[in-house]
Amino acid sequence: MESLVTWYQSSLGQFMPKEVFIFFVSMLPLIELRGGIAIASLLKVPLITSNIICIIGNMIPIPFILLFIKKIFVFMKKHNILKGLVEKLEARAAKKSSGVEKGEFVFLLFFVGIPLPGTGAWTGSLIASLLEFDIKKASLAILIGVVLAACIIDIAFYGVLGTVVN
């Protein structure tokens, strides 16, 4: 994350406010809110401001994933556009979600909320969409999971690690 912060400060920092930068970082797959909060702490963005920006940024892509990813995947496989990647993503989502049909809300909430590699709002949305979870319940579970992840990451970067890094 430090290299991303250094890049931002040397290239975009004079043109883009740090709050806008962490907003866009929070929207990116893989980095998401977790990276956004880490970067915000390094850029000395206040905790509450960081959380609001990163939660909103992380949640913006979620409805689009929930509503359209299956259609996009069908189109991509039909036209042989990154077909191997799509099949790999579908297999990964199926593997990570085995046995969750009954407790889908709680599973999704903790899947998104516990910050482990390969988990987060993007992957949670992919799983929810592919397994045809109820969109309203999935959206709420993902939102609560994102807030839980923010609390955990806050402790790490603004609490324990914040005293070491800052």
Q: Mean pLDDT, nearest integer?
A: 90
The separation of the N and C termini measures 14 Å
H-E string: HHHHHHHHH
Structural class: mainly alpha
Task: State the low-pLDDT regions, or none.
Answer: none
β-strand percent reads under 5%
Total number of domains: 2
* Helix share, percent: over 70%
Number of strand segments: 0
Instruction: Give me the number of helical elements.
Output: 9
Largest sheet geometry:
none
- Rg, Cα atoms, Å: 17 Å
Give the CA-based shape. globular
State the gist of this model.
By secondary structure, this protein is mainly α.
Label this structure with key terms.
globular, mainly alpha, 77% helix, 2 domains, single chain, 166 residues
Give an account of the 3D structure.
- With 166 residues, this protein is mostly helical.
- It folds into two domains: 2-58 and 158-165, no CATH class; 62-147, no CATH class.
- It has nine helices and no strands.
- It has helices spanning 2-12, 18-27, 32-42, 47-59, 62-78, 83-96, 104-113, 121-130, 135-165.
- Helix 2 runs parallel beside helix 4 (47-59) and helix 5 (62-78) packs across helix 8.
- It starts with a helix and ends with a helix.
- The mean pLDDT is 90.
List the helices and strands and how they pair.
Elements lengths: L1 H11 L5 H10 L4 H11 L4 H13 L2 H17 L4 H14 L7 H10 L7 H10 L4 H31 L1
Helix pairs in contact: 2-3, 2-4, 3-4, 3-9, 4-9, 5-6, 5-8, 5-9, 6-8, 7-8, 7-9, 8-9
